[in-house]
Amino acid sequence: MGGTRLKDVAERAGVSIKTVSNVVRGSVRVAEPTRQRVLSAIQELDYRPNVSARHLRTGRSGVIALAVPELVQPYFAELAKAVIDAAREHDVSVLIEDTGGDPSAELRVACGLSDPLIDGVLLSPQRLDQSTLARRERRVPLVLLGERDYEVPADHVLIDNVLAAQEATAHLIAGGRRRVAAVGFQADPLFTTSQQRARGYLRALESAGLPHDPALTPLVPAFTRTDGMTAMRELLALPEPPDAVFCFSDLLASGAVRAVYDAGRTVPHDVAVIGFDDIEETRFSVPSLSTVAPDKHQVAKLAVEALLARIAGDPEAPHTTLYAEHRLVGRESTARPAGTA
Prior knowledge:
- This protein is an alpha/beta fold.
- The chain folds into three domains: 6-49, lambda repressor-like DNA-binding domains (434 Repressor (Amino-terminal Domain), Orthogonal Bundle), CATH 1.10.260.40; 61-159 and 295-326, Response regulator (Rossmann fold), CATH 3.40.50; 161-293, 3-Layer(aba) Sandwich (Rossmann fold), CATH 3.40.50.2300.
- Helices cover 41% and strands 13% of the residues.
- The protein contains twelve helices and eleven strands.
- It has helices spanning 6-13, 17-25, 32-45, 51-58, 74-88, 103-110, 130-134, 161-174, 192-208, 225-236, 250-262, 296-312, and strands at 63-68, 93-98, 120-123, 142-145, 155-158, 180-183, 244-247, 272-274, 291-294, 321-323, 326-329.
- The strands form three sheets. Strands 2-1-3-4-5-10 form a six-stranded parallel beta sheet, with helices on both faces. A three-stranded parallel beta sheet has the order 6-7-8, sandwiched between helices. It has a two-stranded antiparallel ribbon with strand order 9-11.
- Helix 11 links the parallel strand 7 and strand 8.
- Helix 1 (6-13) packs across helix 2 (17-25), helix 5 (74-88) packs across helix 12 (296-312) and helix 10 (225-236) packs across helix 11 (250-262).
């Protein structure tokens, strides 16, 4: 039914206009029988909230955008869910955009998708260079996510990747492993995640007095299961293969574990494996996968609150870098082999 108003829904449900508004916005708890009456009236009358009208009244639509390189990657899917949950606490909706790591798509998102109804943007960039980002034409409120190093006026939420990678590698060394490989090195300096985790890996080797053997750090094109499997096969073919592997993502680790088993060996007896991201499947794989767990909910909370503060406040106020916590999760894939101290 075109032109249905809140008043029409309220009359059909036998409640006040404010009650209907509370149900639509979800910002105030409404008794369940009342909420169901309102929802039934909304469906019967085909009521649609007018976002444009809200924008005209308040100057804001209550919609923000989240852009990630690959939504099919479990880490980004889980992060997106955490952002949606965090935004809902503030009665804000989230538009999800998959950029595919395309710098032109990332720039379009950084400019607000050319949509005046987007209040602000959370962007996890992969290949967007700093100079292009600094010159963006439409300066919507922007918060950056992830490890890319940008010296641009934008708030930034991340974890300490170098420290986290160092802790993951040290965990393998503490388990008695001495020939520790790393899967995730990339030649392209734009892939900052790889560069930072590589630094942490090398720092842990140095702290333990272990040499860096370049043969133990094969390059990978991406952080996929297939890339992890291919790199692990290369490592297992070495005259002296590794006894442990730090993978820069859980997907790489999943592929690496598959390659170990395909070679007739076992994890962790022959090769200990640790990943990064703590995606849900790591808890259910066989063996369960040790990993670094970024606090995705904290990342989401910090990012959403920083963006909403920027939307509501002074766009020229000093920008901040916010660090979310991480923790190392030891599971079966890095357990000490039976009979070792």
